[in-house]
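Bumping my old thread because nobody answered last time. Still need a sequence for this structure:
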């Protein structure tokens, strides 16, 4: 299992367009992808679960990826989370 910490760089936080992009990326991989913020954990494939985390700008969260293509999935998410503009 891979786990990485990220900080939200988008001034709007993780909003619907970002959640949709996360879900889309997660759907491209066989690995299980979870996003954790505080005590809450969301399945990255679910836009609603990701949105329910309510992750605002400049807040840290973690991503856990487990599966045969975990490295590729984490790299795709890392690229998304390091952007400061909307996807």
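Sorry it took so long. Here it is:
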């Amino acid at each position: 299992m891979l786990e990485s910490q990220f900080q939200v760089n988008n001034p709007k936080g993780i909003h619907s367009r970002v959640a949709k992009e996360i879900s889309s990326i997660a759907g491209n991989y066989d690995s299980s992808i979870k996003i954790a913020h505080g005590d809450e954990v969301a399945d990255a494939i679910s836009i609603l679960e990701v949105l329910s985390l309510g992750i605002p700008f400049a807040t840290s969260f973690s991503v856990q990826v487990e599966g045969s293509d975990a490295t590729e999935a984490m790299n795709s998410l890392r690229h998304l989370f390091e952007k400061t503009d909307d996807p």
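The chain has a mean pLDDT of 94. Let me know if any region looks off to you.
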